[in-house]
């Protein structure tokens, strides 16, 4: 999470710098694009970052049933 916050912070400062310094349009467009990608990744991290691993979703009973079927 700290890496993502660093990306967003760095790209935010870069975008502000480009706009304040009157940089060419392509610099401004790329800065906004990079910032939007950072925000999309950050949003995904917030939404899905605390999901349990797929193996945690398997119940113990399911494992025992699979083992019992395998022994037959």
TrEMBL record:
Domain of life: Eukaryota
Gene Ontology CC entries for this record: cytosol; endosome; trans-Golgi network
InterPro entries: SLC66/Scramblase_ANY1
Gene Ontology BP terms: phospholipid translocation; retrograde transport, endosome to Golgi
Coiled coil: none
Protein name: PQ-loop repeat-containing protein 1
Source organism: Trametes pubescens (White-rot fungus)
């Amino acid at each position: 999470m700290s890496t993502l916050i660093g990306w967003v912070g760095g790209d935010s400062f870069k975008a502000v710098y480009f706009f304040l310094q009157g940089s060419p349009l392509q610099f401004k467009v790329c800065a906004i694009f990079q910032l939007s990608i950072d925000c999309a990744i950050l949003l995904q991290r917030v939404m899905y970052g605390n999901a349990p691993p797929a193996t945690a979703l398997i119940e113990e009973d399911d494992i025992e049933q699979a083992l019992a079927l395998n022994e037959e």
